[in-house]
Amino acid sequence: MATLLMGESINVMFFRRWILIILGLSPLLLGCSTNLRERQLRIREAELARRQEVFAPHALEYQSLLLVRDSLLKRKRPGDRPHWPETIEGIWEANIICSSSNDRKWIVGDRLSQTWQFFSNSTGIFVAVFDNQRCLRVLNGDFAGSTIHLAYAFDSFSHPDVALSVSLHHESTRSMPGELIFFFPENGKAIFSIKLHRGDAFLNL
Q: Does this model's pTM top 0.90?
């Protein structure tokens, strides 16, 4: 009986010792587990950062392609194409009279009769100026409200440093008065009054 009690006492002591050992090691085990999770988290974050770095150029390329696509779609929309209003586009006859000049090429009272054709294409709005069926120049156009502004796009006769500016008022579907100014080198300038009225002629550009 004494031997049995002694054996049970030894077992109890042995069991208690293991419990104390386990309790003593548990903080270390928990610490190891926490360190392992932190290390795994850092590895995942590093892998995610690497993937983002690899994918970044592709993302930028994708965004660029989207911008190009949107730009092409916008160009294909008929409503976005630059054009003159129907009341302006077409043929007009121009009566032009010099009202002021300090350049020897023009004197007050000089008159010009020309045909102007307002047209548009995918690059903008323009006016072709004709004299006896021959195109003298093409003007860039800009239209805001009832005011039209024109300037050189191409001139087959004038010197490159000669500039031209036209301002017209679209007051009706049959008439447009305004002012035309030639600017020459050395502060030369000739000012013309201009009046356009609807013409019935047809010109082939």
A: no
